[in-house]
Amino acid sequence: MALPAGTPRYALAAFDFDGTLADTMDWFDGMIEEVCARYGLRTPDPEERAALRLHDAREVFRKLGLPLWKVPAVVSFLRGRMAASRPGLALFPGIEDALATLHAAGVRLALLSSNSSENVREVLGPRVWAWFSEDACGSDVFGKAGKMRRLLRRQGVPAARALLVGDELRDIDAAREARVAAGAVTWGYNLPDVLRARQPDLLFETPADLARLILAD
């Protein structure tokens, strides 16, 4: 069934935060040695860190020797550490403009991140935070599909008119599991060719592509 003229292609766009909206990759990279020492993991050298970006999260954890049962503790530790670093973190250039365009076009925006609401809200700032109709932060690293399904129910949006945008392979997988469209940004953790091979529905090569492709007929 065709949508009425002027109706956005997607009624709901849910966004990952780290590596998608916020430029936090250098911060996470700077935390690797501390995390590895604290949790008894093998510390990768710079060359291996770059190579890890070719893999999904489960494989990265396996290569670092991080068992899945320890992941929640590591995520909680990083959330706490980031709280002290928030003033030095920022959105990628062009992200605020893209979100403003989507919001003005009537697309409902949501946050779907394993980071904390407090960290996300502080980095977004009050103006951008107010554009989001729902905050589903604090999710498990592999819990985004369930969060997305619950988000659809609360918002009353059919899966066919929803999109999950992230920077990792696990975000594409979560979108597929939730039966929503998968959008991948190429400026985050996983490398562009790796993301392309997973065949997301939309591939964003610049922040300006977010509004252009999400609003395309």
TrEMBL record:
Signal peptide: none annotated. One of its GO terms (biological process) is DNA repair. InterPro entries: HAD-like_hydrolase_sf, HAD-like_sf, HAD_2, HAD_sf, PGP-like_dom2. SUPFAM superfamilies: HAD-like. The keyword Hydrolase applies. GO terms for molecular function: phosphoglycolate phosphatase activity. It holds the Pfam family HAD_2. GO terms for cellular component: cytosol. This is Hydrolase, haloacid dehalogenase-like family. The lineage of its organism: unclassified sequences, metagenomes, organismal metagenomes.
